[in-house]
Specification:
single chain; about 220 residues; alpha/beta; Spore Coat Polysaccharide Biosynthesis Protein SpsA, Chain A; two-stranded antiparallel sheet; 6 helices; about 30% helix
Length: about 220
């Protein structure tokens, strides 16, 4: 079954201007995850979806084996749901299984991508896969009620049942699910845990700084 990796990118970014092409530890930010996708053994094709001429030119120059899809005008802008972008790509691309990630995940490794794909392919009980970050801490709701602990029983935090944060690194689903629901993840996904370091996702300028420091520490 053909697995297609989707990497959507806008030219515009509100919180970190020009972040996809912004230098991060010596190369444009999106190069990190693109290189990981190309190195993953189970990824058959990599498709970058963008509305940016500059990103298109950079991909054509530095990643000639990566396919570029120009985002249609009706799906451009800051308020278009990623579900709609993924559903559109699935409607115009061949492939059986689709993996979607973001350029803002520069620490995502090829080995983790392959492990997630293997977990999805080996599973017969779930309809999709979503990467998550486990947290073991004392959480409360907005009403002050404890969520995952009893305040009268002070368990060590490492003994608390974990909660899982959707970390926006990996989504995997088959064509049938995406075409039927229009969603990139179904109602019964595999929760695929990742460590916090690798799961860093860039939303704010501080996230960019943290990601760059981690990359420089790892790659020298």
């Amino acid at each position: 079954m053909t697995l297609v990796a989707l990497l959507p990118m806008k030219g515009h970014s509100e919180r970190v201007p020009g972040k996809n092409l912004k230098a991060c530890a010596g190369k444009p930010l999106f190069h990190w995850v693109t290189e990981a996708l190309l190195a993953a053994r189970h990824v058959d094709r990599v498709v970058i979806d963008t509305d940016s001429d500059l990103i298109c030119e950079n991909v054509e120059e530095d990643f000639p084996t990566v396919e570029v899809h120009r985002r249609p005008a009706e799906l451009q802008g800051d308020f278009v749901a990623m579900h709609d972008i993924v559903a559109h790509l699935v409607s115009v691309l061949d492939g059986d299984v689709f993996l979607q990630t973001h350029s803002t995940n520069p620490l995502l490794r090829a080995e983790t991508i392959d492990a997630a794909i293997e977990a999805f392919r080996a599973d017969t009980e779930h309809d999709s896969l979503m990467s998550v970050t486990p947290w073991q801490a004392r959480f409360y709701g907005s009403d002050g009620a404890p969520i995952n602990h009893d305040p009268n029983v002070l368990l060590r935090t490492q003994d608390l049942p974990p909660l899982y944060e959707e970390n926006s690194n990996l989504y995997i689903a088959g064509r049938e699910l995406i075409e039927r629901t229009g969603l990139r993840v179904g109602p019964n996904p595999i929760l695929f845990p990742m460590n916090r370091r690798e799961a860093v996702d860039i939303d704010e300028p501080l996230d960019f700084t943290i990601a760059e420091l981690l990359l420089m520490a790892h790659h020298g």
